[in-house]
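Hello,

Our lab assistant flagged a job as stuck in the queue for most of the afternoon. It eventually completed. Since we weren't sure the result was trustworthy after the delay, we are filing this so someone can double-check. Below is the sequence as submitted and the structure that was eventually returned. Let us know if re-running is recommended.
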Amino acid sequence: MDGKYTKRTFLLEILGIVIALIFLIPFYFVFINSVKGFAEILIDAAAWPKEFLFSNYVKVWEIIHFPRAFWNSLVITVFSNIGLVIISSMAAWKLVRTPGKFSKILFIFFVAAMVIPFQTVMIPLMKLGGMLGLTNSIPGIIIMYFGFGVPLSLFLYHGFIKTVPVEIEESAKIDGCSPFGVFWRIVFPLLKPITVTVIILNTLWIWNDYLLPLLVLQDAELRTIPLAASSFFAQYTKQWDMGLAALVLGITPIIIFFLFLQKHIIKGIASGSIK
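-- returned structure --
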């Protein structure tokens, strides 16, 4: 209440630590079993390994051609993010700065698209993608991510842009700045907090996505990390030692990325919810 460390604060801290440990349990099982032999995993998956077999990672690196899968995931994630940021920010700015029934209806359609399950549209999507030549290609799946990612990204940008004073833009117009220049020189730099939030959320989604790449990317050379890791889990054989090592290799970059930028998530969302 007055800045003192109370018993209630202590209990809340203990509760927070306990909850954090519970959420860390899956990471413990994944890492511990990724350095065990297959037989040792079957005997006791929760036990500490008798010997740390880091050779599992070397084998996985070679078997799934990890550098190639990593490059595919990186290219898809980076270019999808670039497109989503450009499209969503410009569309949200236009909707906010041109109020009217049409803008409201269009915004409602974008928001409504967020609640449509992917499973309901994946068959028509594959048929349309095949007709347009978007299947089995990295540019094709990037374009599809544009379509699925714009609704949420636009929603976040829409709330944040409302907090940007329109007087700043009017001053730039008086100085002779074009609408394109107003957005990129004046507005977009002010959107940095929500832009970082959009990039983080979309990166976590796209990097870990399994179903869309499974449907779109058939060639082995185009496989992303989740697809490559899934090759260790067939119908009749499950190579837990190799599969878990591949999982650790796949999630390590995204965990580092998230930990490095996590503070911007709360900051961006909180800023966008002021109005």
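-- support follow-up --
The delay was a queue issue, not a problem with the job. The result is valid. The CA atoms of residues 77 and 205 lie 9 Å apart. The longest helix spans residues 66-97.
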